[in-house]
Design a protein that fits this description.
Layout: H1 2-14, H2 18-39, H3 41-65, H4 68-80, E1 85-89, H5 107-118, E2 122-123, H6 124-131, E3 137-151, E4 163-171, H7 173-179, E5 194-198, H8 199-205, E6 212-218, H9 219-226, H10 236-256, E7 265-266, H11 267-286, H12 288-304, H13 309-324, H14 327-339, E8 346-347, H15 349-363, E9 365-376, E10 390-394, H16 395-420, H17 426-432, H18 436-448, E11 455-456, E12 458-463, H19 466-469, H20 473-491, E13 497-500, H21 502-546, H22 548-556, H23 561-602, H24 612-638, H25 642-645, H26 658-665, H27 670-695, H28 699-721, H29 725-739, H30 747-756, H31 758-797, E14 801-805, H32 815-828, E15 833-840, E16 853-857, E17 863-871, E18 885-889, E19 896-897, E20 903-904, E21 918-922, H33 931-940, E22 949-953, E23 956-961, H34 964-967, E24 976-980, E25 983-995, E26 1010-1014, H35 1015-1026, H36 1038-1045, E27 1057-1064, H37 1070-1081, E28 1089-1093, H38 1094-1137, H39 1139-1147, H40 1152-1193, H41 1203-1229, H42 1233-1238
Helix pairs in contact: 2-3, 3-21, 3-23, 3-24, 3-38, 4-21, 4-23, 5-10, 8-37, 10-13, 10-15, 11-14, 12-13, 15-16, 16-17, 16-18, 21-22, 21-24, 21-28, 21-31, 21-38, 23-24, 27-28, 28-31, 28-40, 29-40, 30-40, 31-38, 31-40, 31-41, 38-41, 40-41
Subcellular location: Cell membrane
Membrane topology: Multi-pass membrane protein
Organism: Paramecium sonneborni
């Protein structure tokens, strides 16, 4: 009957015209959808709000994160400075070795060669000319950096410090403002003697804006930073004598013979010679042609002498300047000096140069007066934040100010020599014969012609379109390579500059965080997509079940099945498209506000438009969600016969799974298909994606793979744990009824509802469990990983304050002055500092020492590489004990005890109670094995012992990583041997540890770690290797001698120190640490010394990660909102399906409140059970991931529960379930029993 009716309607439909069919059908669909919206506005509103919320939130997050490069640029600028490329000079010693061995071989000449080869400047004029031809370069500006001591001359005021060690930065303030270098720091052009000073420095000196401060400039210290290396010492006079040797004595001695400048003459001899010299110079002044010929002869002799190009150029310049003046003027000055000498006084050129060097050296340490223009709290990228205290001045003013300050200091020094030198001494005579006025005029005239901007220490370049260049690591590498290639293509690859990219280097670190954030967005998108698809599906499937009769009538009236499909899709799109449009509009408004904030903060401009990726994601979600959600409802609507559709008493229990049966008959199993697909995907990920990520160092792909695996793990664990859903529900329900005893009579009814609603509730609780598990995992996992990252930071640096000299600075720290300051601080306030400790430069990093050291058993096999470093006995007392993980101890010695009660294993290396030191002979050729046999062997053959010297065979105490017990076969009970070059040292392993703060220790056998030895043992090894005493300067290696002479004075054991660990005795405020760190910086030798405030760094890291926690909280709120509607839709369907039973229960005597509590208890038991399962799954996966990370870091596990996210998700779900179930019952609870039983709306 029903098939005949449907066939007749279809035939009638065929006789209609095409456009009439379309018009009629569209009108019916539109009217039907409009009528349905009016009849059931709640479903429409829920669907609209779902699409709107998901689209708006995810599009906003995606669009906001697309601006992350701006944030990363801002953070990197603060860290590294607002410079894209920095051109620094390459010393000529690194470019060529020609002619460096020519000339007298003395220590000053050694220093002079270093001066010649170790210093150069960047030709800024050439850089500007070349970079104008490179399209990607916006502009360039010069900078100069020196170190000085800042003082407040005001008296009778309290000061935290009398002096503040500060960097003196010279800039072109006008140029930098115009090109936007340091654009986030709003400053005006710097004029006259005005300077910008960091606020911390002003606070330490108790100074304010407008005050006049003194800045002490030590030019020798500046030159030592850029010129002097380990080959000469830091003595100012030696440095100046090096300049004389290089540019004057060297060429003269090549022409007139070695030691020409040191040839001694009596005063009488010189007086005779000076008379002749005056006559000769007057003759040359009166005969320009002869004068020119003499000048050319001198220059030719220099050219033919084989001096280096730099020496030749400077020497020729000196002669040009000299012969351009009246030579008689100079000869008379010299004659005046000679006439004042006694006849028996002994004088040489070298002696006069030494006196001049003393005068100049004393004058190169001078003060300049500066007026504070602005106080700078944060540089905001104008310079690197890590530089600490900075004094910034415009270079135009600096040239004159520095020159006049030097001249004042030089004049004062000359006057001092006149007064304080012995009467009639050479020093006094030299001082009185210096033509001060003429000299000063010459210096002024000469410096007036110097254009400081043409030669600079660093040339700082900015690029165009910076934002796009820093969006990814590949973009950064491409633009750096492109710019550097274009530059060197034009100037040649031997051009003496080195290009560094500090901003790009810093941004790359943040891009790793960006990749991590991108994966967070993907995870959040996946989670919210699941919830929204299920919610829309629940809405559509509920409509299909309720409208089965309506769909049947439409089909009976001639409505074809494919039009029914269009009807269902358009019905979904009626709320999807408006929701998409509203979501994009709201997203645009909020994105504009976020963009405005970011643009204003970063002072960089991009577009206010929504990112294209965000628009694509929005449209994709807006279309995909209704399409994916309608697949099963459409299948459900079309799978019924017309008879079933017109059955008013139809219930969903009568559904027939036609498609499943058909597939099984075809031999296709859905379970097998998905299992096979999952295994194939797992194999592809394991064997292709993961190796590819490692091979190509694709961090983003690696994180994406890890993210997918974790999501699949969460889903898999949830599906497995969902087996416990039903027993959990029953247990929770029984617990609820135990609390509310008056409702125990409802127990069977609630159990019956749980069983009847199982299929619908299963989908709801499963999605809620997955969402909760993901959020708990993300919150707990991220909190645990944040803890791991901060632990790694603290373990690496080792103490509350860590001061480190870069590896490029072999001279290390000024130990003596730092130690004096720290001792003074501890005496003044015993509650402030607990302890401090210095460590030596790694022995392999000391110049001329071997790069590789090994440790082994007495059998000399197996052996393993180790890096040795000397530590003080109190090292661990100065470090963060929480990151010290000891293993085994030598039970034969005594150890100290730390604050937490742990045994101080490092202190054991200073216990020498059971060592066996003995006299020994060193034989480098090891001709025989025993000392006695060796001695007799040489005696019998009457041979001299080659390179044999007497020494002490000292046993070395050492602390080694725990992993060496496997790889090197050593332990605290086994004697061992240290290999240093070809030398063997008997060694006692006093302690083995998994972690020692500040050093690399591990329990893994494959890793090369550090070995800690005492200062005495370190000194013994170094002295034994160099066959001398580094403190006395009698080493066999001359280069090593010069290196150790160049170290700071008064070093304990004479060893260079590269690390200082400081531990506070109490909780300190940030301001206390800032003042303390500023005081410590007063004793830094150069900018290659870094200070780390570990407490502040930890706080900043935690603050950074806190923003990601906020992101998860927002995701949790959105997820709980969707869960509320999902539970509401599910319970509304449950109530409608059980409406007849609801009426019967009312008829047999249950009141409205009892019926309401039936559904509320059901909801609470469902959500609580799924919430517990989700929490457990999330925590298990988070702990599993963290334990895997801890396998590499080897830190102790710390459990951190994500309280905020748990309260929002679990308790929010509890409130959501209660509210949704109450609203679902509210719809029919107030209707009459007869209305409910008849099923009337």
């Amino acid at each position: 009957m029903d098939d005949t009716l449907e066939e007749e309607n279809n035939n009638a439909y065929l006789y209609m015209g095409l456009w009439q069919k379309i018009t009629v059908t569209i009108r019916i669909i539109v009217e039907y959808i409009y009528s349905d919206i009016r009849k059931k506005p709640r479903s429409f509103k829920i669907g609209l709000f779902t699409i709107y919320l998901v689209v708006m939130f995810l599009a906003l997050i995606q669009s906001a994160f697309s601006l992350s490069p701006l944030i990363f640029i801002q953070l990197a600028e603060t860290t590294a400075g607002d410079t894209d490329l920095v051109f620094t000079p390459i010393p000529s010693e690194n470019r060529t070795k020609s002619n460096t061995d020519i000339g007298p071989q003395n220590s000053n000449f050694q220093a002079s060669q270093n001066l010649l080869n170790g210093f150069s400047l960047v030709n800024q004029t050439e850089i500007v000319r070349i970079t104008k031809n490179i399209d990607e370069i916006f502009d360039t500006t010069p900078r100069w950096l020196m170190i000085g001591n800042l003082e407040n001359p005001k008296e009778n005021i309290s000061k935290i410090s009398d002096t503040i060690r500060s960097f003196f930065l010279l800039i072109d303030s006008q140029k930098e403002i115009s090109i936007g270098l340091g654009r986030r720091l709003e400053t005006d052009i710097i004029n006259n003697n005005e300077v910008l000073v960091t606020s911390s420095g002003l606070r330490g000196l108790n100074a304010t804006i407008g005050d006049i401060l003194n800045l002490n400039i030590d030019i020798i210290q500046f030159l030592s930073t850029y010129v002097i290396t380990e080959n000469n010492n830091n003595d100012p006079e030696s440095f100046i004598m090096a300049a004389f040797d290089t540019y004057l004595n060297g060429p003269l001695e090549l022409i007139y013979g070695q030691n020409f400048t040191k040839q001694e003459y009596t005063g009488l001899e010189l007086k005779v010679w000076s008379t002749w010299l005056i006559v000769f110079t007057d003759f040359l002044d009166n005969n320009p042609d002869q004068k020119e010929q003499i000048r050319e002869n001198f220059k030719n002799q220099i050219n033919q002498a084989g001096v280096s190009n730099d020496q030749n150029e400077v020497s020729n310049t000196i002669f040009d300047i000299l012969f351009a003046q009246e030579l008689g003027y100079f000869s008379r000055i010299l004659g005046g000096f000679i006439q004042q000498l006694g006849d028996n006084d002994i004088v040489s050129i070298y002696l006069v140069e030494q006196i001049m060097a003393e005068i100049i050296a004393d004058s190169l340490d001078f003060d300049i007066q500066l007026k504070v223009k602005e106080s700078i709290k944060s540089p905001k990228g104008k310079w690197a934040d890590g530089l600490g205290n900075i004094v910034v001045m415009d270079y135009r003013n600096a040239t004159i100010i520095l020159r006049e300050a030097f001249l004042i200091a030089l004049n004062n020094t000359i006057e001092d020599y006149k007064i304080n030198s012995p009467t009639n001494s050479v020093q006094e005579i030299v001082a009185f014969n210096i033509p001060v006025e003429d000299l000063f005029n010459f210096i002024r005239n000469y410096t007036d012609s110097i254009k400081l901007e043409e030669y600079t220490l660093t040339s700082n370049l900015l690029v165009k379109d910076r934002v796009t260049k820093y969006t990814s690591k590949d973009n950064i590498d491409n633009f750096v390579l492109d710019v550097s290639n274009q530059f060197f293509d034009q100037v040649g690859y031997d051009f003496p500059v080195k290009i560094t990219v500090p901003l790009a280097t810093a941004i790359k670190q943040y891009l790793l965080l960006g990749n991590f954030v991108d994966n967070l967005v993907v995870s959040a998108t996946f989670l919210l997509l699941m919830l929204s698809v299920l919610l829309i599906y629940s809405l559509m499937i509920g409509d299909v079940e309720e409208k089965t009769y309506e769909f049947g009538m439409l089909r009976a009236l001639g409505f074809q099945k494919w039009w029914l499909i269009i009807l269902l899709l358009l019905q979904a799109f009626t709320f999807a498209i408006p929701g998409l449009i509203l979501g994009l509009i709201t997203c645009y408004i909020l994105n504009s506000l976020i963009s405005m904030f970011i643009f204003d903060s970063a002072v960089l401009m991009s577009s206010y438009d929504i990112a294209k990726s965000a628009i694509g994601l929005s449209i994709g979600l807006g279309l995909f969600i209704p399409l994916a959600s309608n697949i099963l409802p459409i299948v459900r609507a079309l799978s019924k016969t017309l008879r079933d559709s017109l059955d008013l008493y139809h219930r969903t229990i009568n559904d027939i799974l036609v498609n499943v049966i058909k597939l099984e008959k075809m031999g296709i199993s859905i379970d097998q298909f998905f299992t096979a697909a999952l295994l194939v995907i797992m194999g592809f990920v394991s064997y292709y994606l993961i190796p590819m990520a490692f091979i190509f160092s694709n961090i983003q792909l690696a994180l994406a793979v890890i993210n997918i695996i974790l999501i699949v793990m969460i889903i898999g664990f949830t599906l497995l744990a969902n087996i416990l859903e039903e027993p959990f529900e029953k247990a929770i329900l029984k617990l609820i009824l135990c609390i509310f005893k008056k409702d125990r009579n409802l127990e069977k009814i609630i159990f019956k509802n749980l069983e009847a609603h199982y299929s619908r509730n299963w989908k709801t609780t499963l999605m809620y469990t997955i969402a909760l598990a993901f959020l708990i995992f993300a919150g707990a996992g991220f909190a645990l990983q944040t803890s791991v990252i901060t632990d790694v930071l603290q373990s690496f640096l080792g103490a509350d304050i860590s001061i480190q000299a870069l590896q490029s600075d072999k001279r290390g720290l000024d130990e003596y002055n730092l130690r004096m300051f720290l001792n003074k601080t501890m005496n003044e306030d015993p509650t402030f500092l607990y302890d401090y400790s210095f460590t030596t430069l790694m022995l392999s990093q000391i110049p001329e020492m071997p790069n590789s050291h090994f440790i082994s058993t007495l059998a000399k096999f197996p052996f393993k590489k180790i890096f040795l470093g000397g530590v003080e006995e109190n090292y661990l007392r100065s470090c963060l004990e929480a990151f010290y993980i000891p293993n085994s101890y030598d039970q034969n010695i005594k150890y100290g005890t730390l604050i937490d009660g742990a045994i101080d294993g490092v202190s054991g290396i200073y216990d020498r109670s059971d060592v066996q030191d003995r006299e020994a002979f060193y034989d480098p050729y090891s001709l025989v094995g025993s000392q006695l046999i060796r001695k007799q062997w040489y005696k019998d053959l009457s041979y001299e012992k080659p390179n044999l010297y007497s020494t002490i065979d000292r046993e070395i105490n050492i602390v080694v990583p725990q992993g060496y017990i496997y790889e090197a076969g050593i332990n605290v009970d086994t004697p061992s041997i240290l290999y240093v070059d070809r030398r063997l040292y008997r060694t006692n392993v006093r302690h083995m540890a998994t972690k020692v703060p500040g050093y690399f220790f591990s329990s893994y056998r494959s890793l090369v770690g550090n070995g800690l030895i005492s200062m005495e043992d370190a000194l013994y090894i170094v002295n034994d290797f160099f066959q001398g005493d580094i403190r006395q300067g009698n080493l066999s290696n001359q280069r090593a001698n010069l290196y150790f002479q160049s170290l700071p004075k008064n070093l304990t054991y004479g060893l260079p120190k590269d690390n200082l660990q400081i531990r506070f005795a109490r909780q300190t405020t940030e301001q206390e640490r800032v003042d303390f760190c500023n005081a410590l910086r007063n004793y830094f030798l150069n900018e290659q010394t870094l200070l780390f405030d570990v407490i502040t760094l930890k706080k900043e890291a935690e603050d950074t990660f806190y923003f990601i926690t906020i992101f998860y909280v927002l995701v949790a709120i959105v997820a709980m909102t969707l869960s509320f509607f999902l539970i509401l839709v599910s319970f509304v369907s449950n109530v409608k399906d059980n409406s007849w039973e609801f009426g019967v229960l009312r008829a047999v005597g249950l009141n409205k409140q009892q019926i309401t509590r039936v559904y509320i208890y059901e909801a609470i038991s469902l959500i609580t059970a799924s919430g517990l399962i989700g929490t457990i799954v999330g925590l298990v996966v988070a702990i599993t991931l963290t334990l895997q990370i801890l396998m590499f870091t080897e830190f102790s596990f710390k459990f951190i529960f994500p309280t905020e996210i748990f309260l929002i998700t679990f308790l929010g779900g509890f409130i959501t379930a209660t509210g949704a179930s109450y609203l679902a019952v509210l719809e029919i609870r107030d209707k009459s029993i007869s209305t409910i039983l008849k099923g009337l709306q």
